[in-house]
Amino acid sequence: MMISSWKRRRAARRAGKEQQRNENRYQMDQLMIPRDFRCPISLDLMKDPVTLSSGITYDRENIEKWIEAGNFTCPLTNQVLRSLEPIPNHMIRKKVQDWCVENKSFGIERIPTPRVPVSSMEVLEILSKINVACKKQDGEACRDLVVKVKSLAKESERNKRCIVTNGAGSFLSEAFEAFSMASFDENVAVLEEILSALTIMFPLDGEAKGFLGSVSAMHCLLWFLSSGDLSRRGNAVLALRELVLSSDQRKVNDLSGMEGANEALFKLIKDPICPTATKASLTVIYHIITSSSTNEKQVAKLVNLGIVSLLLETLVDTERGMCEKALGVLDGICNSEEGREMACNNALSMPVLVKKILRVSNLATEFSVSILWKLCKNEKKEDGGVLVEALQVGAFQKLLLLLQLGCVEETKEKVSELLKLLNLHRNKTECVDPMDNFKDMKRSF
Fold first, then answer.
1. How many Å apart are CA 309 and CA 97, to the nearest integer?
2. Helix, strand, coil: what percent of the chain each, to 5?
3. Bridge partners of 58?
């Protein structure tokens, strides 16, 4: 009886609240928002009213979208705008806030006072001061200015776009190069702050990458990469990824020739900071071993460090992006005899590679087939070696299925050759795949 009575009271309270909400909705429907408080574009209540040079007031979000779409006229009057920088209309904003307070009983919340976004003029003024501080080698002043830029960029996406559009990446990269050429010990603090701000500006343009890719700047990045501070290491590897993705072969060659580069990148994979830093490290290594003119030396160093077993362990259980990058690096490593030997001697190689076929993505499948092809075609053992191992984990069935589903021409040729090699040893073992069972396969087209 007590429980039943309590349920009835709770139902009555809920019904009362619902009735009150319905009444409020009805009152709000009857409430007319003053015309001057509505944005002419969306017809909604303005939260951040700004006025254009035409004298018409709009909500900032709506008019900025209009201008960013390439329109240089006032939407209402079609008048050509003398300035694309809207001016905050504090009077209208205060009136809107007062109106919200007066109509609080209708469920209308007071709009907060918005922060005024940074203007292009303000950004250019700060960047100009950074340039002057660099020329004077005033690290402390430059650091304070960079902290201000970073703070403004983090306030809003609009601020960040404004800062990037006005060339902050080039200014900061030039500052980084300038301070890296001077006394490094004295400028560690300002260099660290500039690097931290630069990561917000990615992707960088060609001019910025030119400054950041100088020998002195890259030595500084490598020093940060090798330091014990996690934040420095993470930011440094992100900057190096930007450089190797610039399609400038010289930068990749310079990096590969620097002492300690391979060791520092390897450490980021072995002792990960975060997935983003690990993927960035794999990307840098991939470009070094596939693009460098001295890639054989770099591969040998990485193999001696234990990169093959580390990659295979990473591949056992990882997400798509990491998997693709790890397979790409392993594919590059297997171009060398030392790399193939280490992969052939690792018990994880065949099970992991076969499992990744048709399981992750088209790219992962292509890399997996490529690695299998490199290992199997170079197998010299009379007992079949890795060929028999591949058969034991179901490689033959997987490759046949891949041919049926379809793949790119280069991969198709490798699959055909692999099937011929595997077929020679099918009598030595039974082709079964108890672990895989072909679940969750993805078509390659």
1. 63
2. 65, 5, 30
3. 50
What is the tens place of the pLDDT at every residue in 266-310?
Answer: 999 999 999 999 999 999 999 988 876 667 888 888 999 999 999
Longest dimension (CA), the chain: 90
Distance, in Å, from the CA atom of 202 to the CA atom of 197, rounded to the nearest integer, reads 10
Q: pLDDT digits over 162-198, tens only?
A: 999 999 999 999 999 999 988 777 889 999 999 999 9
Assign 51 to helix, strand or coil: strand
Kindly state the DSSP code that residue 259 receives in the 8-state scheme: T
Question: Do 238 and 276 contact (CB within 8 A), yes or no?
Answer: yes
Are 145 and 130 in contact, with CB atoms under 8 Å apart?
yes
| Helical segments of 334-394, H only | 337-344, 349-356, 362-377, 386-392
Convert 165-230 into a string of H (helix), E (strand) and C (coil).
Answer: HCCHHHHHHHHHHHHHHCCCCCCHHHHHHHHHHHHHHCCCCHHHHHHHCCHHHHHHHHHHHHCCCH
By C-alpha distance, which of 116, 124, 123 is closest to 86?
116
Q: Tokens 């280490």 appear where? A: 342
| Rg for the chain, CA atoms, rounded | 31
Parallel/antiparallel/unpaired status of strands 87-88 and 49-51:
antiparallel
- Both tokens assigned to 28: 């709000």
